[in-house]
Amino acid sequence: MRQTQQTFQKDQIEQDQSILKLQLARLIQNKRNIKKFYREKGIQTISTPELINIIGKGSFGLVIKAIYLDKQVAIKIIQIKEEINIDKLKQEQKLLEKFQDSKYLLNLRKTAYAKLSSPLLFIFTDLCEGELTDLINKKISKKQIISIMVQLLVGLEELQQMKIIHVDIKPQNILYNHQNGNYQVKIADFGQAKQLQDKDFTDNLTRAGTLKYTSKEILNDDEKIGYKSDIYSLGIVFIELIFGRLFDYQQDIKPLKQGKWDILSQRPKVENRIFDKIDDFLIEKIIKNMIQSNQHERKDSHELLSLIFQEFLTNHQQTQISFYEKCMDKVMNQF
Ligand SMILES: Nc1ncnc2c1ncn2[C@@H]1O[C@H](COP(=O)(O)OP(=O)(O)O)[C@@H](O)[C@H]1O
Ligand SMILES: [Mg+2]
């Protein structure tokens, strides 16, 4: 049932995207029109962003690179159609507003509404250099992997402290900037995210995501879904970062639902990217724990960070994000 819905949704999304892409391509061709477009179609309250190019396409629209108030920004343009749940869109906006000061979650700069042939929502965020997908199958050092791991775990810890499950952690939704061999990474795309209320679990979740990053509990209607679901997806991201890109899961969904899919046996043989070469028992232990199919055996972000920071952090200590950062500095200096 979910499978059929996914296929339908995918066709629809592709069709919507090509329409939006065509509209934008026409605008890009005629640069003078761009200003007119923003002026006429509703973003009167802000100065006109200057469109540079299209940098991404996602499930609901396009992401463009633009200059706004002399700064480069990314603008995600979402077509608001009748079948889109407006409350969900507003929720993405509301969530992003919470992350203004976070180092590890993508920062929102502005939102605006406009109307072309259909109403559009514009989400302005800080422009990043690329997405984590770009780093897969590239040479990356052990130090860089640990640094990326720590940053993303702190990002997930921040989300958990705000009672948010991201639900769609994958390399495309993790952005990076790069300076002197250091990667600063940020978790992005909160379009599927779920804000929990009183409890730390939910059973009320619909998603159409990439199967290979999807935890067992999301596929099983009778299981509750909590923060550890994002931990599983992040584990798969690290497998790809270390071993190379994994094939998309196209097979029978049953073994996945039963937690019987052995992802480690599926890894592509990328010669110099195996655990032995990474030569780190700790990384191996952490990643293997993250991808446990039984969520109760998976550690949470704080427990995983405690493993990395060892002597600096005890397991159930109540911890502020700034404290993790102090630990991070100390640990990274050891490499
Ligand atoms: N701030 C940004 N800087 C650089 N690239 C971005 C930015 N925001 C989004 N992108 C690119 O656009 C793609 C789609 O954006 P995303 O927010 O994931 O939308 P969707 O919900 O449609 O998947 C991302 O995978 C990324 O490649
Ligand atoms: Mg995305």
The total number of structural domains is 2
Strand order of the largest sheet: 1-2-3-5-4
CATH class of the largest domain: Mainly Alpha
| Total number of helices | 11
| Helix residue percentage | 25-40%
Please outline the major beta sheet. Answer: 5 strands, antiparallel
Distance between the termini: 49 Å
β-sheet strand percentage:
15-25%
Global morphology: globular
What are the distinct ligands in this entry? adenosine-5'-diphosphate, magnesium ion
Let me know the CATH homologous superfamily of the largest domain.
Answer: Transferase(Phosphotransferase) domain 1
CATH topology of the largest domain: Transferase(Phosphotransferase), domain 1
Would you tell me the structural class of the helices and strands? Answer: alpha+beta
The arrangement of helices and strands along the chain is HHEEEHEEEHEEEEHHHHHHH
Q: Low-confidence spans: pLDDT under 50, at least 5 residues?
A: 1-5, 270-278
CATH architecture of the largest domain: Orthogonal Bundle
Rg over alpha carbons = 20 Å
Oligomer: single chain
Write down the overall mean pLDDT. 81
Q: Tell me the total number of β-strands.
A: 10
List descriptors.
five-stranded antiparallel beta sheet; binds adenosine-5'-diphosphate; Transferase(Phosphotransferase), domain 1; disordered N terminus; binds magnesium ion; alpha+beta; 39% helix; 335 residues; Phosphorylase Kinase, domain 1
How would you describe the overall organization of this protein?
- By secondary structure, the chain is an alpha+beta fold.
- The chain has 2 domains: 125 residues, Phosphorylase Kinase, domain 1 (2-Layer Sandwich); 203 residues, Transferase(Phosphotransferase) domain 1 (Transferase(Phosphotransferase), domain 1, Orthogonal Bundle).
- Helix content is 39%, strand content 18%.
- The protein is built from 11 helices and 10 strands.
- It starts with a helix and ends with a helix.
- Magnesium ion (MG) binds next to loops.
